[in-house]
Amino acid sequence: MWEGEPDYPTSIVADSDGRIYILDHLNNRVVVLDTLGKFIREIPVKVYEEASLEEIKKTPYGLAFARLYGKEMYIKDDVIYIPVRDGFFVNSKLVKIIKIYISQNWKVEEEKPSQYKLNSINLEIKGVKGKEVKLEDKKIEGYKAIKIIDIKTKESKVLKLPEPMSKIYIDQKGDIYAVNHGYYIAPAGKKYDENHPAEYSLVVKYSIKGKELARVKIPYSVGIPFITGKGEIVALCRIPYEKYPRDPTPNGMKVLLYRAGGRK
Q1: pLDDT at residue 176 in the model
Q2: Architecture in CATH of 1-122
Q3: Segments making up each domain of the chain, as ranges
Q4: Sheet of 143-150, strand order
Q5: Under 8 Å CB-to-CB from 11, ≥6 apart: which residues?
Q6: Average pLDDT in the 209-230 region?
Q7: Cα 95 to the chain's mean position, in Å?
Q8: What is the per-residue DSSP string for 47-115?
Q9: Which of 46, 131, 133, 203 is the most buried (most CB within 10 A)?
Q10: Stretch 248-260: mean pLDDT
């Protein structure tokens, strides 16, 4: 359990050893916990400062910071995983990634022709960029595909998934975990209703080829879950989260660990 002053924890990730990193957005710091949730130390960070890909990879917590700076991106073993919306793809030839950066308030103030734009995150590249092609004119709740880019070979592919998702994680074996949080999970055969209150978060485990391996439901009130390198599910919730269901700046936080089979 980690308790502190009224801070604003906005992101939570884990490294390959299971250490937990909580981004305290308000105080420009990262709080580090061990696998049992015990405080280890804090790391000062400048949330809006540029971070190069090489700088991120050289740090012992490189994977953690890759997700802190890139909300919808995961870097592992020179491979970048990016969720993409169903019905869209970018036809681009990737030659070299130079920097990853975001602007203040997570908004890009101006577009530059040498950048591949992904929401508020830019991957600056050298190469020939194609045009964005829209396949279907319809609204999709969440992401339904993952673009996988190999930094060394410059090759990329798109892996389509049957369930929408809001975040992705990769474990030590290379399996993909798609997390759906904030969307109503409809029964099989029915459409997703964006106006229906969310009931739970859904974590679906896929192989690198897109085959579903397992799925776990987490109560929506607990908080957004993330996956450690060992495939364990961890969620950051309020203390007590039942009493302050909509309070974004609680007086304390609690880390919940779900091991194999969803056991807490």
Answers
A1: 84
A2: Beta Barrel (2.40)
A3: 1-122, 165-263
A4: 74-76, 79-84, 143-150, 156-165
A5: 22, 23, 25, 67, 68, 71
A6: 77
A7: 24
A8: TTS-EEHHHHHHSTTHHHHHHHH-TT-EEETTEEEEEE-TTEEEEE---EEEEEE--GGG---S--TTE
A9: 203
A10: 50
Closest CA relative to residue 213, chosen from 143, 160, 261: 261
Q: What per-residue confidence (pLDDT) applies to 119?
A: 31
Measured distance CA(86)–CA(216) in Å, rounded: 23
Contact indicator for 225, 201 with CB cutoff of 8 Å: yes
Number of residues assigned to the chain: 264
* Residue indicated by tokens 């229906």: 196
Q: Can you give the pLDDT at residue 230?
A: 78
* Global pTM exceeds 0.90: no
Task: Judge whether residue 148 has pLDDT over 70.
Answer: yes
Cα gap 260→264, rounded to integer Å: 9
Confidence at residue 35, expressed as pLDDT on a 0 to 100 scale: 74
Does the pLDDT value for residue 251 go beyond 50?
no
For residues 257 and 263, what is the distance between their CA atoms, to the nearest angstrom?
8
By C-alpha distance, which of 147, 166, 172 is closest to 229? 172
- Contact between 186 and 209 under an 8 Å Cβ cutoff? The reply is no
